Amino acid sequence: MDTEALCFLSLGEVAKQIREGKLTSGEVTRCVLERIRAHDGLHAYNLVIEDSAQLAAAKADAELRAGRWRGPLHGVPVAVKDLCGTKGIPTTCSSAVLRDWRPDSSATVVQRLEAAGAILLGKLNLTEFAMAWYHPSLPIPLNPWDHALWPGASSSGSGVATAAGLCFGAIGTDTGGSIRFPSAACGIVGLKPTWGRVSRYGVFPLGESLDHIGPMTRSVGDAALMLAAIAGRDPHDDTSLAASVDDYQSALAGGVSGLRVGLDERYIATADVAEAVIDAVRTLERLGARVVKITIPDVEPGISAWTTLCAADAAAAHEHTYPSRASEYGPGFRSFLEIGAEVRGQSYAKAHQVRERFANQVQMMFDQVDVFACPSMAMASLPASAIPPDASGLIDGGSNSLVYFTAPFNLSRNPTLSLPCGQKPGGPPPSLQLVARHLGEATLLRAGAAFERATDWHLQRPPSK
Fold first, then answer.
1. What average pLDDT does the structure give for the chain?
2. Which of 454, 447, 433 is nearest to 174 (CA)?
3. Residue 202: pLDDT above 70?
4. Higher pLDDT, 312 or 425
């Protein structure tokens, strides 16, 4: 098997072949490292830890020879966004402010991946501190479909690496769309779990009350495997949920017969994406789901509230370095901190009240449906130059807001699944977003897997360069 074919195997398939002895973790890891060396002019990685990855792969192979199998991630090379703390390894958040930070311990999500036998390849690039802008002194990830296209934000390195075959799966974070944007922009699958389903301990926050952590992969089944490894209560994170973790692998085979799929045709996007999303819903209907026409609560007040909440949360997270080290931040993120520092208590309280009302209305929506379908992003792709240079150009509570289809479900804290749902010649495919009730990840995976079995949109790959 050549390098490219091996690197584009699904995570589940490569794991199966490693367990069966058809491949070794060592040879798979060497293959992916070779591909990274050849193709990471895309700037997906901030740091590749080759020696550590090869040692971990050798250990994984030795354990298998001794009869010890850690589970479906055993020996599989993955990578994490560079705001996930890694013990003794730089965690920069793609900012000059933290260029020298080497945490004393790893984030829980990193520990759980390693405990499951995954091989950590390195740290993935992102926008500075996970907002919308890159620090001007650092390289910007390039969309593997077309370098002139936006790679998404903020988990752009995670999206680029996964789409380009530079890892078998990645960890992203999502505060207002940061798993869903790069998943849509790069043509992959992204799962934003329920807030608290995955521990945030050791992950540098953008907005603690809005941050979600989840997997980014090339298939729904692979997302299920990664989520199973990282989900669950963590005593180090008092906001993590104690609810038992569902059997996500079993959910994949459940099908959609009888599943109620909600659709609000007014909450839709540009023509090409709208058509693809509606076609995807009709596919689910042909598979046995029941389409229910519903009305989503008004999202526009919530988007304005999201900006207030996120900016203030970010200012709180940076109180030790902003404004004392303001000059070290890039102009985009610095402008966002400036907004956050000016938020008054009354404004935050009003925004929080909007969040609570909206979140409650969304939960009531799930009395009528099991999943809600809408776009992940208003269009299949954006030019890389489309993002405004600072926060003043990003604040828009209307339907033109970049976060129109994403931030509402950070406010409501519901789980979402983004997956390719069509074809756009010369660029990444349109992306379907499915939303479920709190802790409804298994339902999302069930619906997403059924859709993938009936279509082949997820098999599209960026052109080889």
1. 96
2. 433
3. yes
4. 312
The predicted pLDDT at position 213 comes to: 98
Token code pair at residue 83: 């705001």
The rounded radius of gyration (Å) of the Cα atoms in the chain is 20
With beta carbons less than 8 A apart as the criterion, state whether 428 and 185 touch: yes
Give Cβ neighbours of residue 393 (< 8 Å, ≥ 6 apart): none
pLDDT single digits (tens) 225-276: 999 999 999 999 999 999 999 999 999 999 999 999 999 999 998 888 999 9
Q: What is the domain class of 3-459 according to CATH?
A: alpha beta
Q: How far is Cα 107 from Cα 237, in angstroms, rounded to an integer? A: 11
- Angle in degrees, CA 226, 7, 230, rounded to 5: 10
Name residue, tokens 């730089």. 90
- Encode the chain in three state secondary structure: CCHHHHHCCCHHHHHHHHHCCCCCHHHHHHHHHHHHHHHHHHCCEEEECHHHHHHHHHHHHHHHHCCCCCCCCCCCEEEEECCECECCECCCCCCHHHCCCCCCCCCHHHHHHHHCCCEEEEEECCCHHHCCCCCCCCCCCCCCCCCCECCCCCCHHHHHHHHCCCCCCEEEEECCCCCHHHHHHHCCEEEECCCCCECCCCECCCCCCCCEEEEEECCHHHHHHHHHHHECCCCCCCCCCCCCCCCHHHHCCCCCCCCEEEECCCCCCCHHHHHHHHHHHHHHHHCCCEEEECCCCCCHHHHHHHHHHHHHHHHHHCCCCCCCCHHHCCHHHHHHHHHHHCCCHHHHHHHHHHHHHHHHHHHHHCCCCCEEEEECCCCCCCEHHHCCCCHHHCCCCCCCCCCCCCCHHHHCCCCEEEEECCCECCECCCEEEEEECCCCHHHHHHHHHHHHHHCCHHHCCCCCC
Distance CA 186, CA 255 (A): 26
CA nearest neighbour of 226 among 419, 376, 441 = 441
pLDDT at 429 over 80: yes
Residue carrying the six token digits 């075959």: 165
Residue 407 pLDDT class (50, 70, 90 cuts): very high
- CB distance 128 to 333 below 8 Å: yes
The reported pLDDT for the residue numbered 400 is 73
Active site residues: 81, 154, 178
Q: Which two tokens stand for residue 444?
A: 């999302």
Cα angle: 205, vertex 238, 207; to 5 degrees? 20
Q: Is residue 398's pLDDT more than 80?
A: no
CA 203 to chain centroid: 14
User: Model-level pTM greater than 0.90?
Assistant: yes
Q: Provide the token pair at 135.
A: 């620090």
